[in-house]
Amino acid sequence: MRTRPPPTRGPGTRSGARALLAAALLSGASAAAQDCADPPPDAAGRKRIERFSARVADVDARLELILADGRRVKVAGLDPPRPTPDAPDLDETTARRLKSWLGGRDALFVPLYKAPDRWGRIVAEAYAPVGAGKAPASVAGVALEAGLARFEAGEASRRCRAYLLGREGAARAAGLGVWADPYYAVLAPGDRAAFAERAGTTAIVEGEVVDVETSDYRVALLFGERRGRDFSVSIERRDLKRFTAAGLDPAALKGGKVRVRGVLDLRFGPRIEIERPEEIELIAPADMPAAGAAAPEPR
After folding, report:
1. Is residue 293 part of a domain?
2. What is the pTM of this model?
3. Can you say how many angstroms the Cα of residue 268 is from the centroid of all Cα atoms in its chain?
4. What whole-number distance in Å separates Cα of residue 75 and Cα of residue 254?
5. Where in the sequence is the domain holding 151, given as residue range(s)?
């Protein structure tokens, strides 16, 4: 590693840009936890879409809630499990576990859009008591902490991203639910055998960004030196404005350790194309030792 004097930690320096990037991606977790574990306040200034309470009659294999009046709710932030080689009925058993909690229970729903989606579902945050006399808790948070699903990144889950990722991380560390199934393991960038098994499915890959390439059409985060053979993450130019608005400069990720989730495509070498900053997590910025790593000796 090249010797250099300690840089000035300002926004105009490379290290300053990385510090700002780390703050943009890692800040707000505690505030989000306070705001997302419980129903959001129905306060003036919040975008008004009428919230409602309803009884949950059933839960299907996609973890969608069927209400007693026939309406169907897609819970924001939940990526439902699919059958796997070791657990061909994983989707159904998971649905039964969620139904054992919510079935026949009244829940509070906070719709995120004025109209149902193209499948006729109400996309909403959902809250339900976890026991008699208990206050309503986040359905997505409880489900993720039990390992019933993975976090689903996107516009609908953006408000509670930090909170929900924290719940998913706790279940993953404990090997609960889906995280006990090898098929749902977080993949390393060089695990080509696992990539072949998961082509066309949503995968989570974690590793160091070796380089960043830009072209007229896209930005590519490279996790190896062999372009087109090693794993990469692609961001199309038209989507970059979302990352800029979130304070995320993809070029500043070089040398950092990240976790990315999305559909795994093998047609142009193993890669995931992401459209939103919510689909990538910064684990350790460049020049910052990962957890458990020895700190560099002073020069």
Report:
1. no
2. 0.81
3. 24
4. 34
5. 33-180
